[in-house]
Amino acid sequence: MKFGLSGLLFPESTVEEVITNIGELGADHVELIFDLPNFPPNTSLRVLPSLKKLIDSYGLGASIHGPIWDLNPLSWHSTIRRLALKYMRKSIDVCSALGGEIVVVHPGRCPFPRVKNFLSPARERFLRFTQESLEYARSRGVKLALENFPMAAEFPYSSPQEMLPLVKELDGLGITFDVGHAFLNKIWQNISSPERRIAEEIKLVGDHIVNVHFHDNRGRHDDHLPPGEGSINFRPIVNALRKIGYDGWITVELHHLAGRDPTEIGETGLKRTKDLFRF
User: Fold this and answer.
1) Are residues 174 and 209 in contact, defined by beta-carbon separation less than 8 angstroms?
2) Angle CA(51)–CA(106)–CA(95) in degrees, nearest 5?
3) pLDDT surpasses 80 at 250
4) What are the distances in angstroms from CA 215 to CA 39, 227, 252?
């Protein structure tokens, strides 16, 4: 098992500082966001060779999280869809240039998902977007990994149950299993024993998981807290990952919390996550 940190933790730092901070904390890998905060739109990609040297100097593995905030691949506007694909391809290029292995892709959002005439075209658009992104990722030697989301109804292909047939259909597509998102999904649906249900989902899609996002929350918001500071009982989840023989990346995906030093948050989150997998 390899334990890393997400660059989301350091929103006020340059990408060089993010890599340095994560390397100094003793992580095994770094996940950088090809979007705010790590790669603002004005970032020159000429820095990539120096970033790779910095990553290598700490012996870090690397992954890239594709655009997060406002590029919806399911948009009804073709211009936005083309831009989403363009930046996903750039994410893949950056990952390849940094010697990285995985690019995380968010599912797109469909407004009014209960309306069939909205949902069906949205699902078709996401399928095309993923096929084109996956083909490009293969050409660059990079793995594409679709992430689950809490609001599964609004984000087609974002629940493990929907993701499974998609990853079976699209050869080479993997899954980034986000534990905090899975917990919120169960709480918002008033599902009892949420951790047991999450463990069942891990077993369902286990062969396709290539990255795990690890963070805690209190069941109301996507807080991205260090383990132990929210409501999640991680023991059944860790046991499920062990049972499927998962030995890949655990990316501790934390947010900068007001009034706390992000380095302390990262150190705490990394240590507690490692401790969970020691027993």
Assistant:
1) yes
2) 20
3) yes
4) 22, 6, 6
